[in-house]
Amino acid sequence: MSYVKQLACITCGQTFPADTPLFTCPSCGIEDGVLDVQYDYDAVARVMPPHEARASGLRSMWRYLPLLPIEQPALLPPLSVGWTPLYNSASLAGALGVKSLYIKDEGRNPTASFKDRASAVGVVKAKEAGATRIACASTGNAASSLAGFAAAAALPATIFVPERAPEAKVAQLLVYGAQVFSVEGSYDEAWELCQKASAAFGWYNRNCAVNPYLIEGKKTVSLELVEQIIEQYDGRFPDWIAVSVGDGCTIAGVWKGLVEMHILGFLPKLPKLLGVQADGCQPFCRAFATDGKLTPASADTLADSIAVGYPRNFQKALRAVRQSGGAFIAVTDQAILDALCYTARTAAVFSEPAGAACIAGVRAAVASGIIGQDAIAAVLSTGNGLKDTKSAILAAGEPTRIPPRLSAVSHREGAKTDV
Ligand SMILES: *Cc1c(COP(=O)(O)O)cnc(C)c1O
Q1: What is the third-level CATH fold of 86-112+219-396?
Q2: What residues are in contact with ligand 1 under a 6 Å CB criterion?
């Protein structure tokens, strides 16, 4: 038995019982009728901070079981997900121009991205629903993550990826044994195809924006962040949290976790959210700066994980940033590649381009006066740099080729070390 009270439509507020088989509100439809899982927070408060998990020394996202929609904990997959390290890096703070900087290394999850938090919940919900196959469409990480967790849960998986997905991510899918369709088209087209195929064949659909449970996994990053700052950093909470934004599920999940820690009394003041997009794909920035309406955009950026021209969790994400009093900002691919390098050279965290985008966003936001120089900021490195070595080498340059002679070593310059 979970602490879930009900599900509510984020647009009309209509509520549905905790065990509803619905994914979206029938009155508001798939675009606006995303459901939100609501808990009995009075009951949760009696078991938080996660007493049982602390007593047992459990260091994974499952320590927050009271805040997760899990009905059958016996189905939890054995992989260790979450409780990723949170570092405070003075040198990265210096590179960005803020007073203090936290970086949470989500690349340390089992399949090397933040998406594992969502997939972990997804496979449990699929099994609870009696599904025999789980499906998703993904720019890469949701797919590789689902493939890994499906393997851990012994659940067959079907995955749709756009043909531009980086090779390392596709390799993960194949190695974990998923059925993989490389769709000759964009991510948006792969997404539509997955929706249709899931409906036609009765597969469980992991797509985050329409499945209300996935975001519950994503929010655990904020639950951890708050607990880690209390434990490791004397409760010096950030003024700003920067998150790279594609579909918008991640930033909406981050916000939900923060709001819950605020409701439960662990976080005295909610931080502002900085949503970061790539210059070549910025539907949220456009909407935020204008009428708040979604205009599908082109998806032209090397940060493949945020190359989403038609965001599927538009309302939740826009609302989260507005409620926080935050902002959206866009950064160039070059700024992303620069951030990829200086983050590795200061904090020694190696991010894929989409993970580095939010870091570039903090620097840009300081330069434009959105974030003050006396601010404490936090960033999520959402994916490991080894996921996309092509971009990493584009960012860092090639090694110096030499003959195997000592004279060649002493006569040449060393690696670039500037930040
Ligand atoms: C998916 C992803 C994001 C963005 O998450 P959305 O929910 O699509 O906004 C950011 N970084 C990485 C590495 C991702 O895989």
Answers
A1: Rossmann fold (3.40.50)
A2: 113-115, 141, 244-250, 305-306, 308, 352, 354-355, 382-383
